[in-house]
């Protein structure tokens, strides 16, 4: 179990401590459940009423709430960001592999840097380059001539196809597939002719990809994931997609081929983005958004239909089917009004 002094917490968060520098914490806990030895935080003002009764060893708050706390206080600019940094410092998650397992199958010409770990039954093919401190989990497959940057970790059963390039400090969760063929076919008189996918996937630095996600290689050019992108579980990113710096994408989202997503976008869960469109920087798409056309301006966009009681939903659905007829009737009324005004 990791243990930190409050002085160390202040250094980690860049905060200002009011209290005992040598007091120890080993766990981050919710405010209402925190006990001695725990650190907690206030990010939602509605919980401020609990500060005086909080039993945590230290509470991380903004300066405006400092006087409301009874014990040790760490004043920080953003308590939620401070929580993330402290949680990282106290994290006890084990590495996905330690050392190089005897059952791993590694080609003779693989370039393995110092302190690389490779788990049981992993397969590393010819020409692969693994930089310092790379960790490859059990059962992973790394295809020919792939490159993985320093400090990147793969959990179990990740498949990295040939020539894929992954940057440094990335985290890729179990069962994800990167570099499989994009969905490219031509049709000749009813017969499907496969189009070889000749590009690859290039992933930047500090990228996290959730479990069971698929990122397809490009057809002619590469699929690109820029630095500092976070991608959730069970997502489909098609060939030639380009995702810009700092974008966050929630689970179940599907992005069709050759779509470009700008920097610092936020894509809600279960959204669907059409192919061959462009999304501007700073766009937020709320959950279940269906994006059929390019978005040229920064802002928040929504299209999902909120849940309704079944009887109300049936009425809504019936009205939707009558929209075309209603539109024709409205145009007829408008035309009649125009005729009467001109008379």
TrEMBL record:
<keyword id="KW-0808">Transferase</keyword>
<dbReference type="GO" id="GO:0009245">
    <property type="term" value="P:lipid A biosynthetic process"/>
</dbReference>
<dbReference type="InterPro" id="IPR018357">
    <property type="entry name" value="Hexapep_transf_CS"/>
</dbReference>
<dbReference type="GO" id="GO:0103118">
    <property type="term" value="F:UDP-3-O-[(3R)-3-hydroxyacyl]-glucosamine N-acyltransferase activity"/>
</dbReference>
<comment type="pathway">
    <text>Bacterial outer membrane biogenesis; LPS lipid A biosynthesis.</text>
</comment>
<dbReference type="Pfam" id="PF00132">
    <property type="entry name" value="Hexapep"/>
</dbReference>
<dbReference type="InterPro" id="IPR020573">
    <property type="entry name" value="UDP_GlcNAc_AcTrfase_non-rep"/>
</dbReference>
<comment type="function">
    <text>Catalyzes the N-acylation of UDP-3-O-acylglucosamine using 3-hydroxyacyl-ACP as the acyl donor. Is involved in the biosynthesis of lipid A, a phosphorylated glycolipid that anchors the lipopolysaccharide to the outer membrane of the cell.</text>
</comment>
<keyword id="KW-0443">Lipid metabolism</keyword>
<keyword id="KW-0444">Lipid biosynthesis</keyword>
<keyword id="KW-0441">Lipid A biosynthesis</keyword>
<dbReference type="InterPro" id="IPR001451">
    <property type="entry name" value="Hexapep"/>
</dbReference>
<protein>
    <recommendedName>
        <fullName>UDP-3-O-acylglucosamine N-acyltransferase</fullName>
        <ecNumber>2.3.1.191</ecNumber>
    </recommendedName>
</protein>
<comment type="similarity">
    <text>Belongs to the transferase hexapeptide repeat family. LpxD subfamily.</text>
</comment>
<dbReference type="GO" id="GO:0016410">
    <property type="term" value="F:N-acyltransferase activity"/>
</dbReference>
<feature type="active site" description="Proton acceptor">
    <location>
        <position position="239"/>
    </location>
</feature>
<dbReference type="Pfam" id="PF04613">
    <property type="entry name" value="LpxD"/>
</dbReference>
<comment type="subunit">
    <text>Homotrimer.</text>
</comment>
<dbReference type="GO" id="GO:0016020">
    <property type="term" value="C:membrane"/>
</dbReference>
<feature type="domain" description="UDP-3-O-[3-hydroxymyristoyl] glucosamine N-acyltransferase non-repeat region">
    <location>
        <begin position="24"/>
        <end position="88"/>
    </location>
</feature>
<keyword id="KW-0677">Repeat</keyword>
<keyword id="KW-0012">Acyltransferase</keyword>
<dbReference type="InterPro" id="IPR007691">
    <property type="entry name" value="LpxD"/>
</dbReference>
<dbReference type="InterPro" id="IPR011004">
    <property type="entry name" value="Trimer_LpxA-like_sf"/>
</dbReference>
């Amino acid at each position: 179990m990791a243990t930190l002094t409050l002085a160390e917490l202040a250094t980690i968060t860049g905060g200002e401590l009011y209290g005992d520098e040598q007091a120890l914490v080993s766990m981050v806990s919710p405010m209402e459940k925190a006990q001695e030895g725990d650190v907690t935080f206030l990010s939602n003002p509605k919980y401020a009423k609990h500060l005086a009764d909080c039993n945590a060893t230290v509470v991380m708050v903004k300066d405006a709430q400092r006087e409301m706390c009874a014990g040790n206080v760490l004043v920080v600019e953003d308590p939620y960001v401070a929580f993330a940094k402290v949680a990282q410092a106290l994290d006890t998650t084990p590495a996905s592999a330690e050392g190089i397992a005897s059952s791993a199958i590694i080609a003779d010409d693989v370039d393995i840097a110092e302190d690389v770990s490779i788990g049981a039954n992993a397969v590393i093919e010819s020409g692969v380059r693994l930089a310092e401190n790379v960790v490859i989990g059990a059962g992973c497959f790394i295809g020919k001539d792939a490159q993985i940057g320093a400090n990147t970790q793969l959990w179990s059963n990740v498949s990295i196809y040939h020539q894929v390039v992954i940057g440094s400090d990335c985290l890729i969760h179990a069962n994800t597939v990167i570099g499989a063929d994009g969905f490219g076919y031509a049709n000749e008189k009813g017969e499907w002719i496969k189009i070889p996918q000749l590009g690859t996937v290039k992933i930047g630095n500090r990228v996290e990809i959730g479990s069971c996600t698929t990122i397809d290689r490009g057809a002619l050019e590469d699929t690109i994931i820029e630095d500092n992108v976070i991608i959730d579980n069970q997502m489909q990113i098609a060939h030639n997609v380009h995702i810009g710096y700092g974008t966050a994408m929630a689970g179940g989202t599907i992005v069709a081929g050759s779509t470009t997503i700008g920097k610092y976008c936020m894509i809600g869960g279960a959204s669907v983005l059409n192919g061959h469109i462009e999304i501007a920087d700073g766009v937020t798409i709320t959950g279940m958004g269906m994006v059929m056309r390019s978005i040229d301006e920064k802002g928040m966009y929504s299209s999902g239909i909120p849940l309704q009681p079944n009887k109300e939903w049936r009425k809504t659905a019936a009205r939707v089917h009558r929209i075309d007829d209603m539109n024709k009737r409205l145009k007829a009324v408008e035309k009649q009004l125009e005729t009467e005004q001109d008379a």
